[in-house]
Amino acid sequence: MPTEPQQARTVRLILGDQLNAGHSWYRQVRPDVLYVLMEVRSETTYARHHVQKVLGFFAAMRRFAEHLRAQGHRVLYIHLDDPGNTGSFAGELERVLHRCKAAAFAYQLPDEWRVDEHLRSFAERCGLPVEVADTEHFLTGRTDLADMFKGRKQYLMERFYRVMRQRTGLLMDGEAPAGGAWNFDAENRARPAKSHLAPPPLLFDHDVRGLHQMLVKQGVATIGQVDPAHFIWPLDRAESLQLLGYFCEHLLPRFGMYQDALMPGQWALYHARLSFALNVKLLSPLEVCRAVEEAWRADPERITIAQAEGFIRQIIGWREYMRGIYWARMPAFAGLNFFDHQRPLPAWFWTGRTRMACLRDAIGQSLQHAYAHHIQRLMVTGNFALLAGVHPDQVDEWYLGIYIDALHWVEVTNTRGMSQFADGGIVGTKPYVSSGAYIDRMGHHCSSCHYDVKDRTGERACPFNALYWHFHARNRDRLEGAEARPGVLQRMGMVYRTWDRMDAAARAALLAKGDALLQHLDEL
Ligand code: FAD
Ligand code: DLZ
Ligand code: SF4
């Protein structure tokens, strides 16, 4: 332990994703309370994280500790390389409580099931009175979604979202949705011209070389690249607010319109890149949505309702909804494998070395920046992994490690649920899969790809094409059969009608091509 023993009546633990300066804990400076933040080995090893993710968490935690100290709070910060660091939350807590002769222990509800279990079991055996506080971050409680849909088969996101709009008053004109509709998705999702250039992403410029050296010295195994002299992610609240301001000013005007676009080399397009700041709670979801609503109300000509609504839906809709699914369905959710997929992830997911231009770009930038935008995650990497029949454990492992914003509650629900349909239709009503035509329609990778997006079975045929049909053919029983939910069945009908109308030779050629691709996934 780094400092002299500090006696404290109460020890309050702050986890790495609980950097919420607005929490009621900090309203009063209390000399009898010691706040503890800890860098521990268990958190650097539960997934093979991107190096920028570990740097981002540790650097933001360190800044938060400084912020609390500057406010007059007593803070103990445990570094990963402190002598005797036991490497786990429970191990360090035991030492701290003992050294401080603490009379009580408090923590905020963790967002991850794994950490929740770990701390609950520690709390039960620590022999002290324990207080568990809310994080005061989310707009819904852990069980709100489950309560709302009690007795129903499906959790309908659109219904949940409307309730959230009413509850928060966001984009509401009295009882009615602003602009006369709840959802303006139909106006979104355009393809930019090939020459279109989005404003450059706002990058910070932190020198985290000392921290990086420490990780290397400690042998923390990571993936991805970093320039530690110029670390780009926001590390405190002021920077997070700056990123939010930049988004509202420069990106929001076209956010919805180009939300699904895929542009070679433009790694963030009109996306906010606020997920890290939100997930570690440097920003609150409500303040982000309010800023966006304010920007729209101030200049509705430049920022149309479709842009603001499209963005706010992601946060008070999808983000809260995924959290609700997580707490309704964990721990079983993390083991679901509806299609019984068993293949390993192609090795090039870890290097980006593939001839498929869309995947090379999405994976390459993920390794370079610890970030890909939603449609790359869903319709490029996720789409490919699902069509290729990769085991969802391997898909989850990749997504949980590679993104700076990856925390289990929002990673597993998006990956196993929305993207891999391994939940059989809890999150979505049909698998998010597409052939190459969709990727071509939404962007400009295909024209410079080794493969031909228009070809389905030739030597250079775009692999997405045959794999798309192979996926539907091999999973027909599951998708149409008794196991499938009614909503799934309805939505799959059109695909199977098209398949059935193809002549037998075309179907056979697609299946043969699909088989061949599946046998050589590593060579694509
Ligand atoms: P923007 O596109 O600008 O959206 C704004 C905000 O909306 C995001 O910051 C995020 O907080 C929220 N949001 C948007 N879509 C979702 C969604 N589907 N679920 C939850 N919140 C959403 N998001 C994570 O935060 N962590 C993850 O580990 C994660 N893993 C994903 C894995 C897969 C396979 C997929 C398909 C999506 C995943 N997402 C995850 C959701 C989404 O892709 C990211 O939140 C988004 O790309 C973050 O970038 P951004 O801040 O620029 O988002
Ligand atoms: C992601 C992460 C990492 C890499 N390291 C730490 C850490 O050392 N200490 C810590 O408190 N939190 C860390 N985190 C975040 C946690 O793994 C975890 O995801 C959340 O705290 C769960 O709510
Ligand atoms: Fe991706 Fe296929 Fe287009 Fe190549 S041709 S960029 S693999 S969709």
What is shown here, in short?
With 524 residues, this protein is mainly α.
What level of helicity do the residues show?
40-55%
- Per DSSP, the total helix count is 20
Largest sheet report: 5 strands, parallel
Radius of gyration: 24 Å
| Strand arrangement in the largest pleated sheet | 3-2-1-4-5
Unreliable stretches, pLDDT < 50, 5 or more residues?
A: none
Mean pLDDT: 95
Number of domains: 3
Alpha-beta classification = mainly alpha
Based on CA inertia axes, which overall geometry fits?
Answer: globular
**CATH fold-level name of the largest domain:** Serine Threonine Protein Phosphatase 5, Tetratricopeptide repeat
Q: How many distinct beta strands?
A: 7
Describe the structure.
The chain is mainly alpha-helical. It folds into three domains: 10-133, HUPs (Rossmann fold, 3-Layer(aba) Sandwich), CATH 3.40.50; 144-329, Serine Threonine Protein Phosphatase 5, Tetratricopeptide repeat; 347-523, DNA Cyclobutane Dipyrimidine Photolyase, subunit A, domain 3 (Orthogonal Bundle), CATH 1.10.579. It is 46% helix and 5% strand. The protein has 20 helices and seven strands. A five-stranded parallel beta sheet has the order 3-2-1-4-5, with helices on both faces. β4 (104-108), α4 (113-125) and β5 (130-133) form a beta-alpha-beta unit. The longest helix is centred in the middle third of the chain and has 25 residues, at 305-329. The termini are far apart. The site of ligand DLZ has 16 residues, from α1 and α2.
